[in-house]
Write a sequence for this structure.
């Protein structure tokens, strides 16, 4: 999960009336429902993402749209609004040093523990967007663990955006998304799918369960997880929400489990339950 850019009209060019109070309402609603903080300067972004919904619904302005999503009749539209306002930009093997650490260190430690604790492996991709992160994780497992079929190995991939969950489940991507990968990865783990598209190989898809999840709401899973990816997600939350979130992650991680966070994120002043190993790689210590 990370910032996506979009062409945003200026106030003079706007087709629909969009007042400061309209923006403040949407900003407060997003914080209440998802924990995500929108800055005070995102008016144009919000307008650009929601104006298409007003057109489709035949509405005259944002006040009418706000009244609609707050009504019983607009319950489904509320989910569409949240999907539009959450941000999704990702790619395969983004911040690749995390996957290198997973292959060379985390999985080796988990394998060593398996002698006494059994061949169980659980990884969570929290804020998985359209699936590139959990599929990169699945490929890393398949390349690093030739005996993966002999393990009880599962990857949980969650996101608040239901459309991203749908895309991840489908596992279909533009062929251009494979550019820059080592040659063996496209050959082994992707298959042609229509014109200029590819689909993840079945063995990778079978490792992952995609689920809708709001990180600031109830978590149905029990853990423990050996590894959690939460990258470029918490930058959208205030410090208090971050403290709660990382405490919950620590509670679900196995002793000594690993946490990967984004390059612009850090845990300083947020939690003392993790030890920094380097390059936004943390180990649970409490």
């Amino acid at each position: 999960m990370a910032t996506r850019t979009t062409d945003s009209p200026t106030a003079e060019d706007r087709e629909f009336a969009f007042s400061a109070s309209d923006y403040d309402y949407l900003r407060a609603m997003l914080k209440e429902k998802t924990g995500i903080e929108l800055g005070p300067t995102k008016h144009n972004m919000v307008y650009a993402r929601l104006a298409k919904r007003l057109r489709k619904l035949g509405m005259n302005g944002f006040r009418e749209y706000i009244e609609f999503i707050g009504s019983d009749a607009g319950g489904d539209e509320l989910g569409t609004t949240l999907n539009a306002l959450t941000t999704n930009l990702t790619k395969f093997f983004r911040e690749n040093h995390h996957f290198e650490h997973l292959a060379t260190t985390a999985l080796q430690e988990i394998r060593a523990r398996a002698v006494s604790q059994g061949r169980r492996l659980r990884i969570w991709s929290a804020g998985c967007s359209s699936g590139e992160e959990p599929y990169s994780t699945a490929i890393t497992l398949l390349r690093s663990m030739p005996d993966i079929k002999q393990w009880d190995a599962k990857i949980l991939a969650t996101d608040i955006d239901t459309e991203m969950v749908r895309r991840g489940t489908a596992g279909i991507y533009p062929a251009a998304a494979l550019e820059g990968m080592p040659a063996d990865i496209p050959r082994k783990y992707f298959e042609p799918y229509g014109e200029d598209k590819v689909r993840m190989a079945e063995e990778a898809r079978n490792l992952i369960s995609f689920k809708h999840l709001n990180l600031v709401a109830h978590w149905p899973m029990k853990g423990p997880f050996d590894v959690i990816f939460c990258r470029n997600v918490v930058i959208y939350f205030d410090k208090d929400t971050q403290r709660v979130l990382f405490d919950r992650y620590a509670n679900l991680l196995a002793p000594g489990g690993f946490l990967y966070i984004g390059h612009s994120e850090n845990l300083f002043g947020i939690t003392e339950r993790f030890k920094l190993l380097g390059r936004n790689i943390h180990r649970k210590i409490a």
